[in-house]
Each structure stands twice: as structure tokens, then as C-alpha cells.
Amino acid sequence: MLTKKSDFPSAIDCGYPGYIEDGYVEGRSFLFGDVVKYSCRRGFRMEGRAERRCGRKGVWEGEEPSCKRKWLSYRMEKHANMLYRITSLYL
């Protein structure tokens, strides 16, 4: 018979997974089995998985993702007396 508060199993809580630079974390509950989703600000791309799950030991599974800046590269080239601007987008 369960009589004391300590006799009842407590929920496994992973706690807030933390902020990521230049990104967002979506999730309202951080208990065993819950999933948080990550996304990046405009102009940034995700490196790593966009989701993490709260594990049995109260630790978030997987690695925390990061947001890396997308960037453009410009160069000028001359062909047949015409000047062209060449643009490259690096993801």
C-alpha cells in the first residue's frame, strides 16, 4: 500500500533543453517522452537534427543542433567587354 509521497513514482523531467544561438526551441513540456523542435532564424541553416526527445534518465537524447549563417559570395568577371556579377549561395 502506498502511503507516503516518496512511495509514488515521480515524473522524469529533463528540464529546459537550453537556447540555441540564432535559433528557437519549441516545446511546453520537458518530461520523459516529450519532444522539442528547433528552428533557425531567417538567413541561418540548421546543422544537426531539428528534434530531441526527453529520455528515461532525465537527459535529452541526441546532440543539440546549431544554426549556421548562410552566406553569399560575389565576384566580377569580364567577358566580351561585358562585366558580369557572379553570385554563389553557400548553404
Which features characterize this protein?
Complement Module, domain 1, mainly beta, 91 residues
Describe this entry's structure for a reader.
The chain is an all-beta fold. It has one domain (11-90): Ribbon (Complement Module, domain 1), CATH 2.10.70. 0% of the residues lie in helices and 43% in strands. It contains no helices and seven strands. The chain has strands at residues 23-26, 35-40, 44-47, 51-53, 66-69, 71-79, 82-90. Strand 6 (71-79) and strand 7 (82-90) form a beta hairpin. The mean pLDDT is 84.
How large is the radius of gyration? 23 Å
Largest sheet: 3 strands, antiparallel
Runs with pLDDT <50, length 5+? Answer: none
Summing up helix and strand content along with how strands pair, one would put the structural category as mainly beta
Give the class-level CATH name. Answer: Mainly Beta
Number of individual domains: 1
Q: What's the CATH topology label?
A: Complement Module, domain 1
Helix tally? 0
Can you give the helix content as a percent range? under 10%
- Name the CATH superfamily assignment: Complement Module, domain 1
Q: Taking strands numbered 1, 2, ... along the chain, how are they ordered across the largest sheet? A: 1-2-4
Strand and helix order: EEEEEEE
Known CATH architecture: Ribbon
| Count of DSSP strands | 7
